[in-house]
Amino acid sequence: MMWRVARSAASSLRQTRRMSTAIAGPSIVHKRGADILHDPWFNKDTGFPLTERDRLGLRGLLPPRVISFEQQYARFMESYSSLEKNTQGQPIKVVSLAKWRILNRLHDRNETLYYRVLMDNIKSFAPVIYTPTVGLVCQNYSGLFRRPRGMYFSAKDKGEMMSMIYNWPAHQVDMIVLTDGSRILGLGDLGVQGMGIPIGKLDMYVAAAGINPQRILPVMLDVGTNNEKLLKDRLYLGLRQPRLEGEEFLSIVDEFMEAVHARWPKAIVQFEDFQMKWAFETLERYRTRFCMFNDDIQGTAGVALAGLLGTVRSQGRPLTDFANQKIVVVGAGSAGLGVLKMALQAVSRMSGPEAVPHFFLLDKDGLITKERKCIDPAAVPFAKSLGEIEECGLNEGSGLIEVVKKVKPHVLLGLSGVGGVFNEEVLKAMRESDSIKPAIFAMSNPTANAECTGIDAFKHAGENIVFASGSPFENVDLGNGKVGHVNQANNMYLFPGLGLGSLLCGARIITDEMLQAAAECLASYMTDEEIQRGVLYPSIDSIRDITAEVGAAVMRAAIAQEVAEGHGDVGPNELSHMSKDEIIQYVKDNMWYPIYSPLVHEK
Ligand SMILES: NC(=O)C1=CN([C@@H]2O[C@H](COP(=O)(O)OP(=O)(O)OC[C@H]3O[C@@H](n4cnc5c(N)ncnc54)[C@H](O)[C@@H]3O)[C@@H](O)[C@H]2O)C=CC1
Ligand SMILES: CC(=O)C(=O)O
Ligand SMILES: [Mg+2]
Description:
Layout: H1 2-15, H2 34-37, H3 50-55, H4 69-86, H5 92-109, H6 111-120, H7 122-129, H8 133-139, H9 141-144, E1 151-154, H10 161-164, E2 175-179, H11 196-209, E3 216-222, H12 228-232, H13 246-263, E4 268-271, H14 276-286, E5 292-294, H15 295-314, E6 326-330, H16 334-351, E7 358-363, E8 366-367, H17 386-391, H18 400-407, E9 411-414, H19 424-429, E10 439-442, H20 454-461, E11 466-469, E12 476-479, E13 482-484, E14 486-488, H21 495-505, H22 512-524, H23 528-532, H24 543-560, H25 572-576, H26 580-589
Parallel strand pairs: 1-3, 2-3, 2-4, 4-5, 6-7, 6-9, 9-10, 10-11, 11-14
Antiparallel strand pairs: 7-8, 12-13
Helix pairs in contact: 5-6, 5-8, 6-7, 6-11, 11-21, 15-16, 15-22, 21-24, 22-24, 24-26
This protein binds 1,4-dihydronicotinamide adenine dinucleotide, pyruvic acid (PYR) and magnesium ion.
1,4-dihydronicotinamide adenine dinucleotide (NAI) binds next to helix 15, helix 16 and strand 7.
């Protein structure tokens, strides 16, 4: 079959991944000498074999002994362990930033080694390069800035973006993560400093989805900031002006999207951490024209839906019971509304369009009802009528504790960005839940913004709960040898597969069905035995495996909907003839893996 040929071509490309900048002749890399050592993509540090040192002008630029990749790896891990030991007892922020720095330095120097240690130790390193530490990095980004990574497009670049996009040195870009820094995790508007987020998300793409790091592009769209503290900070690296609004803002995003599409028509753009109004508006504006998605709305929705379906199974109920679950969502922003929209679609699919879901939505002003003045259009489908709330003994604007006490929900899900909002009283009220296994999802990031901690959830709501948080917490020792399992409900289980699947089938657009397939795949990944133990999501150690499955599910949905236009030598026809197993294999074969490849041809 044709695709098999393409697959082996892809494998050999992977083996000699550095060939993308090849020139004819004896060496694969066009650079020489110190330029190679200063290029993290080609650099092997002390690992350059003697033949490469000879032929690439490296002789004398390195100490004489050649160190193997394995030795370099062990040496880095030893340094990391020493750092952990030496910083014991120091404030958590100091330790976290020290860990980030040592990893970042390796990233800047030697990408192959960096991505290998990241992949192999993802459980230890994800909290450093992703949430929670990435939040701290963003808060301190201007001070921490040493070397540029990715691209910055600012309001001052209007009219220039089409030429600027060609300043990016790589010929091909597959995956772009774009932010305007306006809602970074639960930390608010961090302006240009939000750049840490696209960088961290794309590191997860490489580690989890095997996207080739030479083909990723983190992007900051700096349209100003409304953060007064940053505007006054003399070190602040972004534009010192209030955020652009309305058409001025949209024209900047439009210009960027056109420029990207002109240079890399098949690149996928992930919108990340845009404030709610622009998150929804840009999604609607671009989703039928470009291959793009909004991770906070859609990725979060997919991961939350998988967890919600898991909670139904944990109660020993069939999935069709989902429509009967009482779900209280705290936070009516891009993430909370995305989750409810997808949950509503699931109810309608499983129980028919007539089914009435039991969703309750709260924001900072309490329960959202139809009587509310200035209700956001996206929240309207979830606003309760007065009749409905009176039936539950509630009033317009009832607060969280009142809602939990009266509704006795099966699930309490937080996407408010407010740390500790699930306080002792709220958690204790969950003991009266109508579920035999009440579920508490404290999904806000970073750690200090989580609605509650794992320890507090098990302590106050009881041992029989299932618990998930957006940032990692340790499992909870319940005494008597029992452990309260802490899940990580984070869109990292979904966006890498959504991007990878879309890329490998050459999706024209990303549809709701592709997202739904991703969520269902994630939900069905867990066994009944795991679910019974309160394990709703896989361990992060298996994130590559789950991402391959999610990617394949996304591809199948794209093929079924005829939005898959093919990738490389694999055309839509070949894609449509692949079996389920062949698609999974195709995905796995196309995942990049960090190894040192020869930089010169053998003579
Ligand atoms: N675990 C995950 O995968 C993800 C987590 N998140 C987290 O979700 C949080 C919210 O993100 P967005 O929805 O994009 O933010 P947003 O700013 O669009 O929405 C926040 C919402 O929370 C509400 N809120 C604020 N204070 C509240 C309170 N005391 N009680 C109830 N509601 C309150 C606001 O009124 C607003 O509706 C952030 O912390 C973010 O890190 C977002 C995406 C993915
Ligand atoms: C995880 C994520 O996307 C967020 O907290 O915004
Ligand atoms: Mg986000």
